[in-house]
Amino acid sequence: MKNLSLLAALLIFSNVPGVSFEYSNLGYALLGKVIGNISGQPYQAYVKENILDPLGMHDTQYEYSDIPAEQLALGYFWQDGEWEGVPLMHDGAYGAMGGMWSSIADFSKYVAFHLSAWPPRDEDEAGPVRRSSIREMHQPWQFINLNSQDKSSTGESCPNVVAYGYGLSWRKDCRGIVRISHSGGLPGFGSEWRIYPDYGIGVFSFSNNTYGAPSAVNARALDTLVAAGNLQQRVIPPSDILSQRKSEILQLLPEWKVEDPGIFADNFFQDIPYERRKKAVNQVFDEAGSILSVGELDPLNQLRGSFLLEGTHKDIRIFFTLNPQKEAFIQRMDVRVVEK
After folding, report:
1. Count of alpha carbons within 13 Å of 268, Cβ hemisphere only?
2. What phi and psi values does residue 124 have, to the nearest 5 degrees?
3. CA 165 to CA 171: how far, in whole Å?
4. How far is it, in rounded angstroms, from Cα 142 to Cα 34?
5. How far is 248 from 261, CA to CA, in rounded Å?
6. How many CA atoms lie within 13 Å of 123's alpha carbon, on the beta-carbon side?
7. Where are the beta strands (DSSP E) in the chain?
8. pLDDT for 179-225, tens place per residue?
9. What are 84-108's pLDDT values in tens digits?
10. Which terminus of the chain has fewer Cβ atoms in its 10 Å neighbourhood, N or C?
């Protein structure tokens, strides 16, 4: 393999390994070689058998000569005021880096599979890999940049932070929207796909223009879908234990007659003694006045959340965190006045 001869001749690093992000075609080609060595079959065959076929992507190929000519898009390059055709490239050792041929219908199955990993939930697995593995790909593993001067697709100032996941770009912007994406290009072609996991939507585009990844178009399309549809981020449903502890807190407060009704973790009164906590809670409820209503539980995750008590004078926000024991006891609870 040519890649191996490149390694034998030695390479130089642009950065110290593991401390900075920089994309490498050679790196992905070598990753494909590793997969081939471990699986005992060519990388392309492994991907087809374990990913493409299970997803129903039967029109997706690595070799353009396997595609009927009438279904094949040709690549172009804009030069000197006119379009020039670009010769198509056969599949080879760099197939793991890029060069796959697919249709819009086929690729929609791939994007939909990424979206199906969210939100995290307990149900039977239906894909070629576990949903948790897909979500692992979506995590920011290597920081890339803080773009303090960036703007949204509609032109407003909107800083964002960008990181690299496992083969994917991760970005979170000033609106709190997480975007997962990947773009790429070859002579004659470009493509990009992106999803908003918290909204359950995504968009992708193919281009037959050299390195013409349609990222800006996709960004406008996705933000238009959110705005036009008035889409909201999907809400995490509270876990049963979180809802149970909320009910128990409501039974306890504001009188708090029993020091420890069996719902607190060992550290709870070590952090702040019972008498001091009770006095502080009484002050908050006195300031708020009579309680008129209890708000819905707003979970931050399975073991942490808050809810609002509406008072005649002021409102009360109760935030609490559970420990990771099976019984999930309350290890932190903040009771604070909130101005109306």
Report:
1. 23
2. -60, 145
3. 10
4. 22
5. 9
6. 8
7. 75-79, 82-86, 142-147, 160-164, 169-173, 178-186, 189-196, 201-207, 291-294, 298-301, 304-311, 315-322, 330-338
8. 999 999 999 999 999 999 999 999 999 999 999 989 999 999 999 99
9. 999 999 998 888 998 899 999 999 9
10. C
- Give the integer Cα–Cα distance in Å for 262 and 272: 17
For the record, the structure tokens of 248 come out as: 């128990």
Whose CA is closest to 97, among 41, 141, 33, 39?
33
Backbone angles phi, psi at 197, to 5 degrees: -60, -35
Please tell me the number of Cα atoms within 13 Å of 89 on its side-chain side.
15
Mapped onto helix, strand or coil, the DSSP state of residue 319 is strand
Tell me the C-alpha distance between 111 and 116, whole Å.
Answer: 9
Is there a cis peptide before residue 119, judged by omega within 30 degrees of 0?
yes
Return the number of other C-beta atoms located less than 10 Å from residue 288's C-beta.
22
Collapsing DSSP states into helix, strand and coil, what is residue 236?
Answer: coil
Residue with tokens 């494909």: 32
> Tell me, what amino acid is at 109?
K
Enumerate domains of the chain plus CATH numbers.
2-228 (3.40.710.10), 240-338 (3.10.450)
What integer pLDDT is reported at residue 122 of this predicted model?
85
Least Cα distance to 205 among 184, 227, 180 occurs for: 184
Instruction: Output DSSP code: residue 79.
Output: E
Centroid of chain to Cα 202? 12
309-325 residue pLDDT tens = 999 999 999 999 999 99
Question: What is the pLDDT, as a whole number, of residue 1?
Answer: 53
Cα separations in angstroms, 329 against 32, 192, 241, 268, 332: 47, 46, 9, 9, 9
Token pair 């697709």: residue = 153
Residues of the chain with pLDDT under 70: 1-3
End-to-end CA distance of the chain: 69
